[in-house]
Each structure stands twice: as C-alpha cells, then as structure tokens.
Specification:
The structure is a single chain. The protein has about 675 residues and is α+β, with helices and mostly antiparallel strands. It has a domain of about 240 residues: Alpha/Beta hydrolase fold, catalytic domain (Rossmann fold). The protein contains 11 helices and 39 strands. The strands form 9 sheets. It has an 8-stranded mixed β-sheet with strand order 30-31-33-32-34-35-38-39, sandwiched between helices. Strand 3 and strand 4 form a beta hairpin. It is globular, with a radius of gyration of 25 Å.
Length: about 675
Amino acid sequence: MPLLALCSLLLLVGAGANASPKPDLRLYGALPMVEDVQISPDGSKLAVITTDGDNRYLTVRKTLGGGIAGVMVGTHKLRSVTWAGEDHVLMLSSMATSGAGFKGPAREYFTLSDFDLRANRQRALIEDRPQAMNIVVGPPQVRMIKGDPVVFLEGVHFLRGVGADTLFSINLRTRATRMLDHGVRYDADAWLVDAKGEPFAQSVYDRRSGQWSLLMKVGSNWKTVEKASAPMGSYGVAGLGRDGQSALVWRRGDQQVLTEYRPNAPPEILPDDMVYGGLLYDPVSQRLLGGYGHEGEDLVYRFFDAEDQRAWLAVTKPFKEDRVTLQSWSNDRRRLVVRVDSPTQGLNFYFVDLATRHALPLGPVHKGLGPTEISPVRTIRYDAADGLRINAYLTLPKEREPKNLPLIVLPHGGPEGRDTPGFDWWSQALASRGYAVLRPNFRGSDGYGLDFIRAGFDQWGRKMQTDLSDGVRALASQGVIDPKRVCIVGASYGGYAALAGATLETGVYRCAVSVAGPSDLKRIEQAIVRPGRSCQVQFGSTDPCSVEGAGPVKLDRLLRADPDVRDLKAVTSPRYWLRFMGLGGEKQPDLDAISPVTQAAKAGIPILLVHGEQDTVVPIAQSQIMAEALRKAGKPVELVTLKDEDHWLSSGATRLQMLTETVAFLEKHNPPE
C-alpha cells in the first residue's frame, strides 16, 4: 500500500550541491541544558534542574526572575525535584550499586534529600534510623499537616534481618522521623496516604505465587478489599480517586483498566476515554482530576470537570500546533509550567499565568538547537505483512531530496513504549549526518489501543521484528530510500531488535548498532523470575547470606523500568517483558530461536555493541557474551564500554561518547553520501 503523506515529502527538496556544514554532534548528544522545572505551591518560585553538559545543578528562582538559592549536584543522577511547602525542595537521586550495608546484585537505588531554602542546606532523609536503610522504594508523597510540610516515604526497615517496604513520615520543619503503621507485611510493595496524612491503602505482592492483594484502612484495622492473580508483577497503587476517599489501581494483563476501590463498596472501572497512561491530581486534595496520553499521534488531556478542560485549552491555545505537556502547576492550578515541543524550535519550557493570560519562555531544553539544526519529521503509515497498520515517524535530512536516501531504522525500547512525532535527539543527530531515520511504532507499542498492544504478545523477535523491515520495504517501494543502504540502531529492546536484525532477519540491513540490548533471553527470563537475592551484612562476615538472622532483602521494586518515578503507571514491571516473549502461555517458546547470542553464526553484517558498566536493567554481560559469540563465529564486532554509565545514558560524557561511536560506525559501514 502506498505511504500516506508521501506527497508532503516531495516538498522537502533541498540543494544538495550547496549543503551546509554538518552541525556539531555535541548539540544533540550533550545532556539537556534544562531537564526539569517545578513551580512552587503558591506559584511564586521555580525549582530548575540544569546541566552544563556534565554536571547538574538545582537552582531556585522567582517565577518572574531573580535567583534565590542553588546547589551543585555534580555528576550525581538527579532524577526529579518536588516542592514540599514553600521552603523545601525534595531531590530524588539514584545510583547503581550493590548497596551499602548488604550484599547482592547491583541495582539502581534511589535516595531522597531535602534542600532547605531558608537554611540553604541539603540533608538526606531516612538517615540514622535504627534497622533502616537510607534508600527509598517509591515516590515521595507530600502533605501539609497543621501547616507543616510532611513527607511520606517508602523505605526499607529490617524485621528479624529481612528488609520490608515500610512507610515513614518526616516532618521537614521539626525533622522528626517516624515509622508508620506496624501492620507492615513482608510482601508490601506500595503505600498510599490520604490528604490528611493517614495511611490509606497498601499493596501486597507474593512473588512466589504471583498473588496481589489490596488492603485499605477501616478504622484502626486493615481490610483486604481485593485479591488477584498477577503473574506479570504487582499492580501497586496509583493514587487517590475522584473524591479523594478511594484508591486507584491499574489492573494490567490482557486488559489494562484503571479501577477505583473503596473499603465498603464494589470496585468501579473508570471510563477508558477519560483516563490514559498519565493521571492528573489536584495538588491540595490529591483527588483525581483526569488523565492524559496518546490517541494515535495526538497527545490528549481530558479532565472530568468542564471548567478544568476549558482552562487547559486556554493554556495550549497560544502554542497552536505544538505539543504541550504539563510539567507542574501551583496549588490553585492557575500558574503552570509546560514543556512545548515545536517541530522547528525543538523543546522549550514556558511559564503560563492564566490570570494575566501570559506565556513566558523559560529557556530551551537543548542549547544551540534551532530551525537550522532540526530536521523535518513526518508521520507515515504502512501495512505489515499480515495487514496490520503500522504508524511510524520519518525524519528526513535537510537539504537533500527525499529520493534513494540512506536509512537508519531506530526502533524504540520498552517494548511497550512508543515513539512520538516530537523532538528526538538521537534521530535528529543521525538526520544531521545525511540519513533518513525511521522510528516505527511496531505492534505492542502503546497509544493505539489494547488490541494493538496484545498483538505484540508472543511476537518478540517475530512479527515485532518484521514490522520494522516491512517499513524498510514500504519506503523502498516509493523510492524514498535505497534498500541497499539501510542499517538498524536501537537501545534496550531497540538494541535487541538491532541484534535480531543482524542474526534473525538477514539480508535487510547493512550494519547494526545495539546500545544496552538483550542478547540471551534465557538469562533475561532467569533474572526476572529468579532474581539474585541481597542479604544484610553482619559485621565480620565474609558470607552474609549464611549468617544466622541475616535473610534476603526484598528490594525488587528498586529495579525500575524507568527512572522517572513520579508516575507509578510509568513503572512497568520487567516481568511484563515475558508476555511479549511468549512466556506464561500454554505453549512455552523456544527462547534460543529468538536469542541473538545463540544465532550469532548467522550474522553477516558488522555489529557495534555499546553498553554502560552500571546498567542494572540489562546487565553489560548481555553485550559481552554477544561479542564473544560473534568473535567465536568469526563475525565482525566491536564492543564499546561506557564507564560508570547506567541503562538510560544519564551522564553527559558517555551519552556523547555513545552518539559519536555510533555515527562513526555508521559512516564507515553505510556512508551517507
């Protein structure tokens, strides 16, 4: 079937003979100059995470200009900031380590600190607590209690040597720290606190049986209001419901629904045309206001209240066709910070005041990127071999006619993620070198309905893979790309797809680059289903797991699929990967047949492997064993190790190193000219 919107591509004819010099790769590969902006409860101040390419900084300034305070974070991974009242900013950071005070597999551990604006001082929370660790296993819940900002945190408390997910409260004014609710269970994995600061709901998950339970407080006792089989991982709790007196839970499986629970009433499924992947809460009452997510290619916000919907339309109206994302808002929801994605200007932050109807720019996300450095992106559609319609985004190099172009296929990670038509630094960098870049939303991608997601079940390395090459064939049939000059590049699941393109579906690609991609699915399955345990360290012990009283520490929720933990829905259990691999069904798949490491002898193209030393999601061993298998088979392979880097390319120097190595490899094996 012909590509829709091909006619628009023909308008993008440039003068190749007078091509401009290629932009510096550092414009794309450096860390964003501004990573996050959060507005204070009264709307008078902004907390801004900035970088200089390597180091991170937290700066607090007045909304309309003027610095107040700041702290240099350095190379530490500052994931997000949250206001707690007007005088405190909570800083959520993470590090990949085997842990302090216990022994076991390396994981990405989260810590929370309080930056006190009045004292201009930063201090860690949950410190010096007996039988506790200074880490957090859930996002902070902030409540104002009798005028004081109080933070409720899930931490780890040791019960008879075994770590349990425990709820703590910290009064930021008095610094008093308390462990709440001694009804904690060993398998608790999430807590919910109501607007008054009372523990309200508790999620419990038994990994051995795959049984999930929701407990809610009735008086002084906990009542089990729901039990369910959840083999793909705990459902957890998402937040308070529409009246602030109920608990929300995403029920994931063959269906994905948002369910509202009350202690003494039947559960209610919320309409799926009103809520999406992201939920919107009132900053004071914490009640659910609506949701946001993708409907096809559109980012849609829907509120239950008509006045709230009109207010959001007023926010987005000045930006016309740009994509607008809510970043933060004041307590009265009249002052907001939004992130605006422009097809010509890239990403920018804006402060919007609904009272004055003004929108003020706060600065671009990427320094030095403008219309001359940003290539056009077009939405295209094509049919897979079995007739399933696939949506994709095609980035075209500037100043080149869209005819017989070299192509890079850049599949997203997840795999239940998705690409969007907005600014993407990686594809923009590749387009700046002269490549067309195809980003397909293959089956299993989010945003196209449950049936489309379910179409990806059992299709890891199968139809999820051929969806990519079907896009290559569609573009080649229209003459847009040269089918003899195609390479595949990807990270995480996209890295697996790159390896599969080299070993499972030969003859399509000229070279492949895998960044942190899985290669041995049996090892992945084992790590998910039977993760290595961590044990509390006893003084003088060389083997802490063998010491009487030292038991396994339950820290599985620290292994996140996404470092952004502000939205619990965004944290997908790694167990969900198994659905796409085909595990858990009536017929178990042959994982060796779809594992690139066991199919290495079939590789007929050069392969570049790039992996971070501190990757705790897909361990670097996955690339190391792939490199060894390729060398034994006599196949061309290069392995680049990123020092001190994690799964998400969080450091400026190594992110740029990855991009530089990738571009050099592509230009060597698939020259763009």
